[in-house]
Fold:
Amino acid sequence: MKNIKNKMLLKLYFLASISILLFASCSNDDSEGSSGKLEVTGISRSVVDDPLVEGDREVDVPTDVINAGNYYIIRGSGFGTLKSISFNGLESYFNPTFVTDNAIVILVDQKTPYYNEMDEMKIVTAKGTLNYKVAIRPPNPNIKGFPINPNPGDIITITGEYFLRPVVNFGETAVQPISSTLTEIKVQVPNNIQYKNLSVTNVSGTTVAGQSLGSAFYDDAYTSLSSYNGLWRPATNHYDIAYDKDASQGTKCINWTSGPDWDGLYIGVDKSKVDMTKYKGIRVSIKGEKAGSVSVIVNGNYGATYPLKFGTGWTYLEVPFSGVGSPGELTEITFQETGGFGGNNLFIDDIGLVLK
Structure:
């Protein structure tokens, strides 16, 4: 399996591709801006890239199927005065910068209906309306939660969206579900899953979970990789390790209300269960009642603290081992509240390790 892709690099790659495509399209525009005739001559998916296959990325791939939540290039003529574009009755936002008389580059709204619908794209311009027949399908799967540290043979539940005819992959091992709905899959865990990523494939494509199997210190509860946990001053802090009103991954998270004097939350690590040669850092998802910051301290090395900033919505963050003293082993992870405004109410989830 290829490594999980860097989202910013993909965004830059996409925008560069769009620029090339639009320049090519503009070369076909007539000098007066609009050809007059409204028609569609072809549809292409802007980028096709299976995350399970190395080196398969293609740009501008012709297709007769539109999967919601993806970018497409609509080619034809008469688009210069575009007013709206919709798929199965739901409008998708378009950026006028990405529209020429001969091409529309569009991110199809992820909420576009796809089940028992009319399979229709509707283009409305100042000069007329075109209804165009094209198959509309769901987005790639959205994985919301799963047990990160399962044992071979366990029957686990994966939650998310768009699980239409799903197959679950543990690394390169594909497993058929025991049962599934559009939002839930039950599957039996195969052997040899450590240091691999779970992914789900539906009729539209594949989504790879960001957490590698067996890498969690906290996943709805502290796991066997952690040996102890607590607060520096529990008498002046609130600490709920099974808060079930909100979660980044799974169904529970840690709710920690820190005191006014830069308090700390610590997690002991069973170093015998962590092979440091496999990992490059620590991951955590965090948000606060107020936007703020924490410092991460590893193995009590206060000379190499790593600052993390977060807002009031869940933020995924990584701490490279090189930023916390390049430890040869992992015995303790500490989060120190450093907002500087008298404490904060923090929510912490998905604490674990990041594969190299």
User: Anything to note?
Assistant: Residues 7-26 form the longest helix (20 residues). The domain at 142-209 is CATH 2.60.40.10 (Immunoglobulin-like).
